[in-house]
Design a protein that fits this description.
The chain has 280 residues and is mainly beta. The protein has two helices and 22 strands. The chain has one domain: Distorted Sandwich (Beta-galactosidase, Chain A, domain 5), CATH 2.70.98. The strands form four sheets. Strands 5, 11, 12, 14, 15, 16, 19 and 20 form an eight-stranded antiparallel beta sheet that branches. A hairpin with a 3-residue loop joins strand 2 and strand 3. It starts with a strand and ends with a strand. Bound molecules: 6-O-phosphono-beta-D-tagatofuranose (TA6).
């Protein structure tokens, strides 16, 4: 079942229910807010205090950071993580492939508004597949006559039982930039979180695993060379108006990205797809 809904403030959603799972997507940012397989806890974390209004970033789910990840490299006045996540997408297609799987295709094309942020003609397509596996694929097409460079991330917020129960495997020996110390380091073994963590791992190839007690979530990617691991911990959570003070205890971001040295150059007419899939 696919239902289109609108909040009292006009915020538009698509809600999905099939034999595998339920899901909820905001048209703004083609933003997956919720995915939950039947008889299991939600996969994604969404802040109880998140803004859900036009033009404001949503705290949780899978924000799409595009056409830049993090702060803009030249103009700090431009929105962090780009403008896609706060821009209304068009719903191009819905398809109930079978009783277990539903697909959505959403589109954002360059416009007067986007050209004011970023002077290139583009089309981005977001394909969301809600089934026994959740897949999000972000395809960028250069529709301009000049090349452009993007950094991007599928900024996934995972819901966890408690951050002390969690480990992340698959990044052993990977190089990372620690944004808290501005130092490049090497990962040794699994990642455990007991303080603020904000790291961009590079040259990432393997499947990652989020282990939360007896729950194992496999994170597979295509077209991604970076992985970002972020938990704001206590002090930063308290400073964020869209997070409960203790919310850091039940969330962890493991982001499928191309950031820093993994930026993607696209020639006119060229396209690139960044994809993540989650299976638990
Ligand atoms: O993904 C890590 C990060 O870049 C952190 O530095 C933190 O800023 C986080 O993204 C959230 O960014 P946002 O703009 O959504 O508050």
């Amino acid at each position: 079942m696919i239902t289109k809904t609108k909040s009292s403030t006009g915020f538009e959603y698509i809600e999905i229910e099939n034999n595998s799972a339920t899901a909820k997507i905001a048209l703004q940012g083609a933003h997956l807010l919720h995915y939950q397989q039947h008889d299991t806890p939600p996969l994604l974390w969404l802040s109880e205090k998140s803004h859900l209004e036009s033009g404001k970033a949503i705290r949780g789910g899978i924000p799409i950071c595009w056409p830049w990840f993090g702060k803009h490299s030249e103009d700090a006045a431009l929105p962090q993580h780009g403008f896609a996540r706060t821009t209304l997408f068009s719903l191009l297609e819905t398809k109930e492939t079978d009783e277990d799987t539903t697909e959505l295709l959403l589109q954002l094309r360059s416009s007067v508004e986007t050209l004011a942020f970023w002077p290139y003609e583009f089309e981005i397509l977001v394909q969301i597949t809600v089934g026994p596996t959740l897949t999000v694929a972000l395809t960028t097409r250069n529709c301009d006559t000049k090349p452009f460079t993007i950094t991007s991330a599928l900024h996934s917020y995972f819901s966890v039982s408690h951050i002390s129960n969690v480990s992340v495997q698959g990044l052993d020996k990977a190089e990372y930039w620690d944004s808290l110390t501005d130092k490049n380091k090497i990962q040794h073994g699994a990642i455990y979180i007991s303080e603020e963590v904000d790291r961009v791992y590079q040259k990432v190839k393997d499947e990652l695993t989020l282990q939360d007690r007896d729950r194992t979530i496999k994170i597979s990617t295509k077209g991604s060379s970076s992985a970002v691991v972020w938990n704001p911990w206590s002090d930063k959570s308290k400073r964020m108006d869209d997070m409960q003070a203790n919310a850091y205890e039940t969330m962890l971001c493991i982001e499928t990205a191309n950031a820093l040295a993994d930026a993607q150059d696209l020639a006119p007419g060229e396209e690139h797809t960044l994809q993540c899939s989650f299976c638990s």
